[in-house]
What does this fold into?
Amino acid sequence: MKDILTFGRYLTRRYGERVYKISLNLSGFTCPNIDGRVARGGCTYCDNESFSPNLSGGKKRFFLSPDTVDNPLLEQQLREITVQYEGSKQHFTRDYGVRKYIAYFQSFSNTYAPLETLKALYEKALAYEDVVAISIGTRADCVDDALFEYLAALQERTGKDVWVEFGVQSVFDETLQKINRGESYAQSEAAITKAKKAGLNVCAHMIFGLIGETPEMMVASTKKVAELGIDAIKFHPCYVVKNTILANEYAAGKFTPISQESYVETLVQAIKVLPEDVVVQRVSAGIANETLIAPAWCGESKNRQMAVIKKALAAQGLRY
Ligand code: SF4
It folds into this structure.
């Protein structure tokens, strides 16, 4: 049986012990695919505020963009890092004895803000002694040379790892158009190539079961994105949640979610085409609440999903 390079194995190897990721979800962040810079409404599967009244107490809510001159939410965002990081850390340290963490800037596009704001937030997270790395979720049209230069210098100065996680989803532009992604694969390719050249760690996010895609396309996407020299990859199935464009498409019979059987089979094939040194960070769906519409299997516990995936991989001599 051959071990897949899971994130857990990679982290233990790199840091000599278990490292947990702590998600940070900060106020004021949005995405150019939501706020109108590129498009409105976002990716078809994205649950965002464009579907609910964008009003709070009668006032329009404030969102950041790189053009924001003075960020009125900065103090609040810094406090949110403290509360979210320390709250999760307390739990993981007490219940699981974990001592090292990765601070993960997760929701929306976490580089879509003025560089001064980003510097303050990233450096606040990295200043925690137990934080060994930060990971920044974003998309290709929200990064530039100045950001990469800064992140590379930050990595050098702190001696801590900086990861950038790009939502790639598919390498097929016709699919990206169907999901209203608002960017092409060429943009992801260029951004990943630059991030790697700057010496940053890159994780690509891929979605299987996007509208109109065959399993062959999903495996081909994995192969092509891996050729960019990414360090890690995350896979997850496309599922339908309430208040999304995809929910409307599903209701109109225009979208059929991927079955668990097909997802697992495709995932196994995709892992088999990955170079052995690409870290597999995630392979399951992460939704277990009332917002899920379909498919039902995505609402099953992570343990149940992982049991099915592990069994399929084991049949191919691979241990997750
Ligand atoms: S890129 Fe991310 S945040 Fe932006 S619309 Fe798509 S899923 Fe939502």
Summary: Residues 31, 33-34, 42-43, 46, 48, 108-109, 139, 167 surround iron/sulfur cluster (CB under 6 Å).
